[in-house]
Amino acid sequence: MKKILLAAALLFMGCATLQAQYKLENLNISYGEELPEDKQKLVHFIGEANGKIYGIGVRKDDYFLKIFESGSMKLLACKQIILPDLNDREVEFEDVYLFNGKLYAIGSVYNKKEKVYNLVGTPLGEDGNLSKDGVILFKVPVEKKSERGNFYFRTTQDRSGLLVMHAVKLKKEDAVKYEVKLFDDNLATIFNTVEKVVYDDDHKDYEFYIADFDVALNDDVFLVINEGWRDKKKKERVERFEVHAYKSANAYKKEVINIGVTDKSLINCQIVPSGNILHLMGFYSGVTDSGRINAELKGVYAANINLTTNQPELVKFNDFDMATKVKLIGERRAKKGKEVPPLYNITSIIGREDGGVIMLSEYQTVQAGGTTGIGFGGVGVGATTTIYNKNEIIVTSLAADGTHEWSNVIPKLQAAAVTTFSAGLGFGAYGNSFSVGGVISVPFAQMSSSGAEFIGAVPIYRNGVLSVLINDNIKNKGVTDIEKIKGMGSTNKLVPSLFVFDKKGNITRKDPDEVIKDELILRPGVVYRSDDSNYIIYASKKDKDKLGRMTIPK
Prior knowledge:
This protein is mostly beta strands and 554 residues long. The chain has helices at 322-329, 331-335, 444-447; strands spanning 28-34, 41-49, 52-59, 62-69, 75-80, 92-99, 102-111, 116-124, 135-141, 150-155, 162-170, 175-183, 189-198, 204-215, 221-231, 236-246, 254-259, 264-266, 270-274, 277-286, 299-306, 311-319, 344-351, 357-368, 371-373, 386-398, 404-410, 415-418, 434-436, 458-462, 465-473, 494-501, 507-510, 521-522, 528-531, 534-541, 544-551.
């Protein structure tokens, strides 16, 4: 089953002297040496290999490759990442990836003269030194710089390759164009495809949505496409919900798998490859009698696709029960027939041993310049203040046949304000009739001082038990009622809270007995999951910084 997708989260564990630590259940925390005070904040773990841990640090507008010893976790080296120019043009840093012990820095650059948007990969040595020559991964013709589109990235499940998609709206052609490529650990192209979808703006409520894309262990590539509009004559919603499969065993020939949907509109989707079955999960909204989409979150759907026959084995839609709606919008509103707003993005899907799944979906919004988006549409650019909100989490358990078993809600109220803003919210920001879906991702440059690395949650699933770790206001100790939750307040005064679920979905909340002075605050936006029981963590308190490990006994 697909690895747990970690979102940004908050913990507050350990201390500078290691003489005191918060104790929550059986989570074991150990820290390494105190890191040098170099004004660089670690914002991302790349991975661990060759007895070393690799990460990205930020200081103002500069990026650094930081290399730590796996055992002592002391800093071994720090190299500024300055990507080589391409055709005398500065390459904009995107990320660094680690594939089978090989490091690559990825950057993008727009060529104004040629009207081409390039993506470049540059090898990095173990010592952090950049190669002089980069590899051009994409060379995409675009209409102009402001309409160059975006690149989106997925690592393979075994972390040995990279799946990249470029998507752009072609305004002059009334079309959407997307290109997908799969690269191996040498950045050689394994697979690529280019698609152009022409749409009719005369359709009412038209939407074209690339809901998700992913790659399976056998290098099969999957895209989920959702296209829909309102038929004015028939007064009904037309919904095209398809999986586009490119299988390695079939020479990557495009195979289209149609999933019938009527009287509903899909809000989001996540792919979960699992052997010969492709699982799809997400939220849906209702449709009025006249074919208009309701601005509501109606419930959770599940679909299983048999990849041998390319046929859906099940498609189930589960409306939220009254108890879940009461927890999300309050009893008074729920009884009046009000619906849940569609502002929840899927952050994790966890496969159970019995074939069932647990889905975690977090309330996520971005407010920029007075405009609010949910990670894939309508977000302003160039605002002086941006606020990232990551609040309550809906936890939903589905049986292997897609039947709803239980839902519950983790109460939290978290926000982080950023004084600058740049484009790049993970999966797209197109709005209007075209979008690319996914969770909100805070740009690295904003992680170093905004507090955005402190919001979210870390799901932990071990031995059949789901636990979710967040940082919270000490005044929320013992509180599970969403109506009584207070905002998280200052990041310097946060404490960890652990929510443990039993097999019926009941929550037990675990809080520390008291606040420990000078306790390190872990930044789970900078957490790396090695496997289902081991995490590399980063903790800080004012000018003190340490790397550590969090383990869950087997």
